[in-house]
Structure prediction request, 382 residues.
Amino acid sequence: MKKINIKNDQLQIYKRENSNLWQLKIKLPKKKAIRISSGTKILIEAKKIGIQKYNHLLNNEIKKIQIDKTYFYKKIHLIESENLNKKEIECFLDTSNKYIEFNKKRIKKSNILEGRTVFNLFFEDSTRTRTSFEVAAKRLGADLINVAVKDSSINKGETLLDTMTTINSMSPDVIILRHPEEGISKKISKIVKSSVINAGDGSHEHPTQALLDALTIRKKFKKFKGLKIAICGDILHSRVARSNIEILSTLGASINIIGPKSLIPLDLKRKKLNIYYNMKKGLKNCDIVMMLRIQKERIVGTHILNEKEYFNQYGLDYKKLSYAKKNAFVMHPGPMNRGVEIETNLADDISRSLIQEQVTMGVAIRMACLEILVNNRDKYGS
Ligand code: NCD
Prediction:
């Protein structure tokens, strides 16, 4: 029997002994093979017909795996927490629920993002956030490309705009961007065709971190109304604090901000927040104590105490935690400066610390974000 394989063996053209017409066999991944006659004796024609049929079937398959849902969140980017309303935040949290269960399965593989391309573009150091997005994208079946920025043309003087234009020409579906410049994700979202997720822009915002923190809190307390949450430490340089203040207060929690005067931004005074410069006063009646890393890389000038002094006044240990509610929980977005903002034993005490749970929730929330944004882009266009 004469046989020709094309399209990585997904399309076969062959002739049976007793027939002079070419036959087609099309076998798409995870699908039953289809066998049909090409209706022609001429090989070139049979090839043309085969490729047409193959493309048609493949397109139908791709259409079928489009998610096509209507979510309360309708945008194609996720840039800031500031403008998210309660229903939109809940849309991300609710969509994550199924992934919390999914991520406990032995085989963690879905195909809803099969054929989609996601770029991780991190211009600042990151372990947690970058790998969390990578795990999320891969579990949904997407192809994820980690751009090694340290080895990229940025070092040869290429501007960020050039880099983004280059990546845009490769037709990505989602770009996940971390960069030291505030507001950069918004700018980039206006020039690329893909969805953009802000994974941290300078000291400005880090919406997926705040969403995963909210998911962790909701899982533990089942509500936000009536909860008192302390956010402590280097608020001035913390995009995590900024995003959490927006999201947790929109969800109905009351927020205490605690830190040294020099690390609390003045613009916070305009918001409905309680500001304290002392842990004992600020932690009173709190259900959750969220500690922040001292962002040494962003601190310029001398508005910081030495580490020992800082730990004495603002570092969380069991004694300071006892100022909060009896069963209060500790959170930290990581990476931690152990012994500076948090005592090491407390950080590892799983009866009080939700830090590992935050990482677990991070994957679920990022799977939800990818699902929603890709769906929205299919549905509403770029
Ligand atoms: C935070 C970040 O990068 O903004 N970490 C994180 O995303 N897990 C907080 C920090 O760097 O201190």
Q: What stands out?
A: The chain has a mean pLDDT of 92.
